[in-house]
Amino acid sequence: MLENFFKLHENRTTVKTEVVAGITTFMTMAYILAVNPSLLSNEFGSNMDATAVLIATCLASFVGTLAMALLANYPFALAPGMGLNAYFSFTVCGAMGYSWQVALMAVFIEGLIFIVLSLTKVREAIFDAIPSTLKKGVSAGIGLFIAFIGLQGAHIVVANDSTLVSYVDFAGNWHTQGICAVLALIGLFVTAVLYIKGVKGSILIGILVTWVLGMLAQAAGIYTVDAENGFYSLYPAMAMTDFSAIGNTFGQCFQADFSGVGIFNFVVVLLSFLFVDMFDTIGTLIGVSSKAGMLNKDEKLPRIRPALLADAIATSVGAIFGTSTTTTFVESSAGVGEGARTGLASVVTGLLFLLAIFFAPIFTAIPGFATAPALIFVGFLMVSAILNVNFEDATEAIPAYLCMIAMPLVYSISEGIALGVISYVVIHVVCGKAKKITPLMYILAVLFICKYMFL
């Protein structure tokens, strides 16, 4: 049955490979179960019920990932997107002062718009219009981006007032940041050696080994719990979730009070969600599918429309459950790195999100430094896409380069794509190669420029 539905043999994969890859993807995404409720329940932001957001996060991730598996048969997992949740909480609800119900309604409408755009081939056309060179740059940029996320999660890279970022002070913060960074580096070496030796599940093994070493370090007193500064116990807690809490957010987007909310301001919020979500999703699909070898000879992704439709459905469904925009996760590349090629891996990931509702305290105990080796290593696998860019043709290479370096430096996939598209159009026009640019690329460039001017 699995062979017939997911076409495992045709995609050169096995049930075992897909299951391990699906678990790996979940493990690298599990941090969202802790981060999303933390952001959306912040008293200076949207101030939602944390338990309700946790349940909504699990349900939205389950529905979205399962939709991706059944509609598109791709190993891409979905969850409430990082960046979008911060914008939801601290900008829309915090700085702009709107209620979280209004923000959820904006997310719900955004999802409906995306459903229409997906059915009418608009999003598919945007995906196909992006030149092959930029697609390589997007893939490499996402590799650097997730590697940077991993380095931060491991506390190897920390904030610095003079240089913005620097490496951790191992000695000065040995029992918290220092030991986390060392354990992450050990996990990275374990992952790399196992991968080189051809051991299946090397990325997942690296996560588990790093986590176990962390628990041993805590038992030995090397790692010190400092909850006030974000260093929690590494032992999984045995507790159940309060399921009644979902009533605090479920369907609340339909109870939004729009008194005092100007139509123009609401449209601005809606368009902001729309722009970021659209190009984050397209960028992720380009990057992950390129790495997996899923693009055809024309650099197009087969079954792109159902993949985008699944993403759109997940966004609206997630808003009903009570969470910010649900989108395709770049961490799907961890599963792809383990050999995932079909929706069976997504089914596994989705089911684990559903199970996480019951055992959320266990999954949220997976520390950032344990998943960091997976993200850093997968970043290495993805950045190699830049080798396929023709650096002899500067008009093609420079936009890809700008796209690649922008993603980690501005901490956004969509902003990297924006810089890549704008620079590609401008450079080609000025250098007399305007004929290579499709009409849709001109439109995208203008829209991105307008976004920066007016949004």
Mind describing the biggest β-sheet? 2 strands, antiparallel
How many helical stretches?
19
Estimated structural class:
mainly alpha
Mean pLDDT: 87
Beta-strand percentage?
A: under 5%
Task: Give, in order, the helices and strands.
Answer: HHHHEHHHHEEHHHHEHHHHHHH
What value does the Rg take, in angstroms? 21 Å
What would your notes on this structure say?
The structure is a single chain. The protein is mainly alpha-helical. It is 64% helix and 3% strand. The protein has 19 helices and four strands. The protein has helices at 2-6, 15-29, 32-40, 50-72, 84-95, 100-119, 122-129, 132-153, 174-196, 202-219, 263-291, 304-321, 332-337, 343-356, 360-363, 368-383, 394-410, 413-430, 439-454, and strands at residues 78-80, 157-160, 164-167, 326-328. A two-stranded antiparallel sheet has the order 1-4. Strands 2-3 form a two-stranded antiparallel ribbon. Helix 6 (100-119) packs antiparallel against helix 12 and helix 8 runs antiparallel to helix 18. The protein is globular, with a radius of gyration of 21 Å. It starts with a helix and ends with a helix. The relative contact order is 0.21.
